[in-house]
Structure to design on (93 residues):
């Protein structure tokens, strides 16, 4: 069963998410934003998290899935560490 996220939880993730240099490399590759610096990538990810409506955030097990159609991205965020585990584009079929 999926849990429902509230606005307070979302704001906490937007403010406190983090990543590693290797994580940024993987995210840049997956989202095709190679030209971004790490700080630019962080700002881009923060914007994706902020723009994702609550109804497009699913919590399954230990992960939150942010599906942002506006930025054509899905971010997987660990619910305990707020680390962005994966990022990918939305498959438009």
């Amino acid at each position: 069963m999926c849990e429902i996220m509230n606005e307070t939880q979302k704001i906490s993730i937007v403010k406190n998410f983090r990543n590693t240099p290797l994580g940024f490399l993987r995210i840049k590759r997956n989202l095709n934003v190679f030209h971004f610096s790490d700080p630019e990538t962080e700002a881009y990810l923060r914007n994706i998290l902020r723009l994702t409506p609550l109804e497009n955030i699913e919590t399954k097990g230990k992960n939150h899935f942010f599906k942002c159609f506006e930025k054509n991205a899905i971010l997987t965020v660990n619910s305990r560490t707020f680390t962005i585990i994966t990022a990918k584009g939305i498959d438009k079929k």
Observations:
- The mean pLDDT is 93.
- Residues 7-89 form one domain.
- Helices lie at 7-16, 21-31, 38-51.
